[in-house]
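Here we describe the complex-level prediction in full. Unlike the single-chain runs in Section 2.1, the two entities below were treated as one system.
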Amino acid sequence: MSPYVELRNVSKAFGPVWALTDVHLELYPGEVNCLAGENGAGKSTLIKILTGAHQRDAGDYLIDGREVGNPTPAQARQAGIGVVYQELSLLPDLSVAENLLMGRLPNRRGITRPRELRRQATAMLERVDQGHLDPDTPVAELSLAVRQLVEIAKVLGQNPKVLIFDEPTTALSETETAALLGRIKGLRDDGHAIMYVSHHLEEMFEIGDRVTVLRDGKFAASGPMRDYDHDSLIATMVGRKIESLYPASSRTIGEPRLVVEGLRPAGVHSGQIDFTVRRGEILGVAGLLGSGRTELLRAIFGADPIAAGRIGIDGVEVKPGNPRTAVRAGVGLLTEDRKQLGLMLELAIRENASIAQLPQISRLSLVDTKAERSTVDRYLGGLRLRAKSWEQPVSSLSGGNQQKVLLARWLATRAKVLLFDEPTKGVDVGAKSEIYTVIGDLAAEGLAVIVVSSYLPEVLGLADRVLVMREGLVAGELTASEATEEAVLHLASTGGSK
Amino acid sequence: MTTTAVKEERVITFGDVFGRDAGGIIVLLVLFGAMTLLSDQFLTGDNLANLARQVAIFGIIAIGQLLVILTAGIDLSVGSVLGLSGCVTAELLAGGVPIPVAILGGLAVAVIAGLINGLLVAFAGLPPFIVTLGMLGIARGVVLVFTNASTIQPLPDAFGEIANGSLIGVPNLLWLFAVVAIVTAFVLRRTVFGRYIYAIGSNPESARLAGVPVKRVLVAVYAIAGLLAGVGGVLFTSRLNAGIPTAGTGYELNAIAACVIGGASLFGAKGGAFGAAAGALIVATLNNGGNLLAVNAFYLQIIIGLLILVAVSFDQWQGRRSR
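The structure predicted for the assembly as a whole is:
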């Protein structure tokens, strides 16, 4: 049997960074091919090349044995490539039927035909056993699991030959996941070629006929799923030595600085989180997507209200639930989403760097612009920020330099505790190692540092101790010597009970 | 340290002095030059004093509007609040209350209206457009109810002196307008509060996570916009020496137009006090010049409308280029 879709030696670069090099992929009708790899391994890029969202720089893309050149998304869809996205693409305020048939609503001279619309929608819903669902229901009223099914019905409406599932179970409960996996098996048995992308290894073993592993943008292996077990698959995904990007950990670890007691972030129904970070210590926080890592940082920083718990800094209790008190107490948070939750894009570099420090450098609420300028010079200069002038808008900087501006913001406040959420997301390799060096230096100066990252080598390379999160709580704690990628992944996906 | 920012040479440029407000001021200067050439009555003391009186009240509320716009909000209630505070002051004066007390009474009512706007926006999370649209109706309705929709007069002559008098040859109204513009420009550029206003307008969540007291700043901004509308109301009443219940109708749109022409962005964080003042002056100069040149007033409306579109398109085009 020949594959329906085949990629040969496909490569893709973003600027100087190669996201994919020489990747092979074959998708056969009636087979589920799982795409495995860590964050940053190139899975999303690969999907985007299949769907035509990205153009590859080298290699062949064959559909049904014919080279297709560089298809546009519309051409890829025409050729039978359907994707069920991780972030649902449905419009929440419109009805199920309108969502299903958006772009080709049945109409007569521009006037919609509601009865026909409902009939077609119900027919589409029946393909995912949701024929009982009223197609007039607004999507916002459906549970996430049902929305996922509607999404699948929508994709099936295009009669695809290939179905790509990108992290479809992130928001689903266990029973919903099981039902979805059953549904995907059904689609496979109908003769669809399926690519399944997930972080959850158990799901892959449950559903996969074949697995393709990417590692650092390169093709690592491909073979029948039954040739792998849990450990050998992780080993194939990881298969790399940690480079010397990370600072040497020759720090002296001192008194406890940040003490978290009985913390329960809002939305977690039971259990509590307790831990301490000492002066000079870097605590890594690992866990799967949605395991509550970001929520933990936001709870410590007071960005979200908490259900219970106490937070102390240098022995002084900090009233939770208010970022302003946290900033005054000496906590700084570098958020994962810099554009939405960190930067003020319209404003200048200087204004972005000094905003948290303004109360400290003002007298009678007048900003001491000389002091402002000199601290900005000092901290941004110390971070070797490359910019023509501090007055240029922060939006003109690259991701790595924007991250430095945010870092300078907290350095200027003389923070005692710094919380990093995905500090190197969207940052190129050069700036990455600079940021690692700064994090190491800060800890060496006596700060307590927490680093959250989905990129395991980063957590392991930086941290003196690793907390592994699962379902909103701490699943386990590992010392630097115990913390291997395998150990962390086991804790994160199974809570230690393998 | 060769890689840090190159020290800029400190040559003081036009842009340094007027900062984010430069565009509107250039247009204003061009307009002044053109009017001087076109009409020999334009650059006369009488006409300029007249122009100053026309622009001052509307300029003061435009500056209040600007503060709100900088936070990416909007205040539709300034015209109604102007009418309300003016009539409260007039009613107090007619009841024999001393002038300073009557003025404070009018201003207090305006601040309260602004506070209500601010609290609803900041704490109830309602959209500014809706909150202030409601206040627009409420404030106007309250004035019409308690005045029975009739003009309040006579008022003491001394009260009329406030807006009609002048100091060293310059109308009081212009002094006040200048003071409000300069103080606001200073607050926006040099104080922590001013910095916080731009930060909130740029990205309220980022600002909150940087320790900015977002809600308090928002309440203060709407209260100040209310206060300045109140100042406008007192001056309006003083200028006519009568409390007019319909005073300020439609001023909110003129104030928004002045801000936009002066370079403010309705998406927040862009614009400055001198820009808004210049925007107000541009609109007033066009009106004044139109009268001098005997241009049909209806055409002037069209011109001002076009000016808004040009100002905003120019802004968009510049924004796209720099991004």
